[in-house]
Amino acid sequence: MTDLYDPTPADRFTFGLWTVGNPGGDQFGPAVRVSKSPVELVEGVAEVGAWGVHLHANALVPFGARPAERGRGAQATMMLSWSNDGSQPSRSSSTYAVFAGANIGEPPQTGITDLGHTLAPGGVISISWSVSDVASIGIDDFGVIIIDGVRETFALGTTTMEIYGTHGTTYSYTVQVENGQSDQSGNRLVGSPVASDSATADGQVDPAVGASDLTADEESGNTVAFTWNVADDSDVDHWVVCWSIGDHDADEVQGLMEGDNSCSASGDKTASHVSWRPAAAGTYHYSVTAVDSVGNMETAASSTALTVVGDETIDWGSVPDIGTEGDEPPIPQSAWIAIGILVLVAVIAGAFILTRGGGEGGDEEWDY
After folding, report:
1. Are residues 32 and 123 in the same domain?
2. How far is Cα 238 from Cα 2, in angstroms, rounded to an integer?
3. pTM of the predicted model as reported, rounded to 2 decimal places
4. Which of 32, 63, 271, 342 lies at a CB distance of 3.0 to 4.6 Å from 24, suitable for a disulfide?
């Protein structure tokens, strides 16, 4: 005779993982049962005729789990299944999905801002950025930069990176924060905002300048005036005139620039410049180099020479003669001499008039 309260499959009994999976440890003593995985627990309750299982609190994902751990737990849940060969009375032969929960992955709580770049000589692109909310960086968060489809990861303490590009090539890049988790479609979860930009590498003075016919003329006042011709100065920012005892070639110009008092930079693209003469007597060989706004240089070998006589004390920290920079050519030294003579004549004439008088009908001197 069947008792009214005997359990049957129609009663749909379920058990919680936290109950059947409790190993029995508490404040009074250690565990007395072996811990089992969620799959083992599900198989166990199925053997005794349970209709299903249910979750509560930290039954599947422990309290305090990091986002990445929660994501892994959710993904494992999606794959958890149990096959019944028909020997279990509560279910027909089939494969059952034990849990059908959604992926609980979470995107990073911070992103990228202030993305920018600067160009450097040789085609270098220096990229910089900031993390939008440093305080919200998760333990699993990391940065990703994608340059023309190529991914590279970095620690979020890094805020700069360089592209060593090819002249004239444009590079597109995106910087974002990830944490290794994905959404239900398998797409990577990223923090907000995501920053993108592009830049074109500048590796040379382009078009070629073709500076030629350099001349060097010593002037009074220990200065030397230079002029030259230019084929195309559209990419020129300024010029650098360098000198050495004996000839120098284009490859040696960089070394002269790194030395002391061997080069002088102009202030603009005007094809003329005035600089101090070298302090020591000798024959000096001069070259002119074009420099663009990024710092690329079109160097040239020395092409003219000038002999200076006698040693001089030169104040390299001061600026040579006025009128040497700007859109107009420098004022010739002869013009300054003529101006000085005119000023002197005017002063003498004025003094003569004041001391001799000149009032009509009178011949007395002015008494001051």
Report:
1. no
2. 105
3. 0.60
4. 32
